[in-house]
Amino acid sequence: MGWAGFAAVFAGFLLTHSIPLRPAVKARLVGALGPRGFGWAYSALSLAMLTFLIRAAGAAPYLQLWYQMGWHRHVAHLGMLAVCLILAFSIARPNPFSFGGTRNDSFDPDRAGIVRRTRHPVLLALALWAGVHLLSNGDLAHVILFAVLGGFAIAGQTLIDRRKRRDLGLSHWTALVSARKAAPRLQRPLSWRGVILRGLVGLVVFAALILAHPYVIGVPAL
Fold first, then answer.
1. How far apart are CA 47 and CA 57, in angstroms?
2. 101: Cβ–Cβ under 8 A, 6 or more apart, which residues?
3. CB 47, CB 128: distance < 8 Å
């Protein structure tokens, strides 16, 4: 695959990921599939396009910018473990500050969990994922790939803050932010069983990614 092919796949990836930013398009899809159906379909599409994009970067012309060192992989493994745990503790929980939260009207700043540390845990996980892969992949195609995705994850936090401020109203937004900041840094979880379960899910996902990496991405992670 040449640079033109890589650019075309990248354009397709960005196009599909613009769907949530187009209210009219998203509304039609949600109307046809239902909220849950849209969520599952869009998640599957996003994962498929990301896999396709990573494979396209691997097939692009190889131009070395820096060499991979042994410690790069160790950093990547630790970083990906953190990514999996962040996602496990953030998905399917109330979060009125970012996208993808569930039961946001029940959000309790004194029981905010990982949201007490960051308003956008999913985007933080994406930025960390991009950063550790950028370190261990020093060829031009992968540098472009992970630098752009990491940049989007960082910039997206500001964009979502603006949208949520507009949607919730400035006074409500300010009150939520103030309550979150005033909450104790160490919070007792509602359920230790839930904490253990989410932690185990994160570990299982991390192990699954390690095992599936050579088959899905085409490169062994170990």
1. 15
2. 93, 94, 95, 107
3. no
Residue range 41-88, pLDDT digits in tens: 877 888 888 888 888 888 889 899 988 888 888 999 999 999 999 999
Contact between 49 and 12 under an 8 Å Cβ cutoff? The reply is yes
HSE value, Cβ hemisphere, 13 Å, CA-based, for 174? 3
In angstroms, rounded to a whole number, what is the distance separating the alpha carbons of residues 35 and 18? 17
For the chain, the 3-state helix, strand and coil shares in percent, each to the nearest 5, are 75, 0, 25
Reference 214, options 106, 58, 39; nearest CA is 58
Token pair recorded at residue 98: 């970012």
Q: pTM of this prediction?
A: 0.84
